[in-house]
Amino acid sequence: MDLTNKSELINILGGFDFKFSKSLGQNFLTDRNILDKIIEKSNINQNVNVLEIGPGAGTLTRELCMKAKKVVSIEIDKTLIPVLNYVMSEFQNFTLINDDIMKINLKNLIKEQFGNEKFVVAANLPYYITTPVIMTFFENDFNIDSLILMIQKEVADRIAARPGTKEYGALTVGTGFYAKNEIICSAPPHCFFPQPKVSSVVIKLEKYEKPPYSVNNKEMFFKIVKSIFSQRRKTLVNSLSGSPFIKCEKEKIINILNDMGLDEKIRGEKLDIAALVELSNKVF
Ligand code: SAM
Questions:
Q1: Domains of the chain
Q2: Is residue 277 within 8 Å of residue 221, measured between CB atoms?
């Protein structure tokens, strides 16, 4: 069975009277090279557990099951369950859960399925849940090794952005604080069926074993980041001193910037993650 073969995919889905749902972002991968790259770069082997989000027709799921110790896939669409039961029938290391990744109790699920063992997250994510899904895995401090994700190119550009660019923002800092990113390959619309309107990218986010940033107060650090990037055109001094969440006097921020050797008129978006952490640690 090769589900990257479009006619084979259509044939199987047709047998189950499956109808694609646009709102669930159902564009299935039909490019063998990209599939092979995802598997190669995920470094999955017989000792690795995988949590897959949105298995669709099982194209990636089958390859994951051939390599991994255990694969647990969460699919929201109940009409895909019989399809998946059929295409995955030969795999003993596969567990399918019919649920919404945004609603399921992930803590319980991970404990039940993987115990204390590390796992990799693999997903060709629907665009409407990309950012919340990524941040959920980092903010909850789950025992993840890495996430290997197919995401919209614009989102990948924001994750991998450099300070001072228009793409650099809360998502860059939010992901870069926890993980190193690597763009694996691009996936233009013709690599999917049906074809989406936008281009995608495969990105790997490898969680730091030992975080390079040591922040005194993580909650306040992210409040600073939020204040800076929600008012990008303001100077750093104005966006922080004007924020009801930070409650820090102008004078203090100016002194901190002088201390850090930074211009008083600098905008927050010019600061890299290390500088934002230093600033936060001086404020709180
Ligand atoms: N992994 C398959 C592939 O690469 O061909 C399918 C990817 S398709 C872009 C996204 C999949 O995520 C669909 O199967 C869709 O039904 C599922 N999905 C959408 N929203 C979801 C959610 N909130 N929770 C779980 N699965 C979801």
A1: 6-207 (3.40.50.150), 218-283 (1.10.8.100)
A2: yes
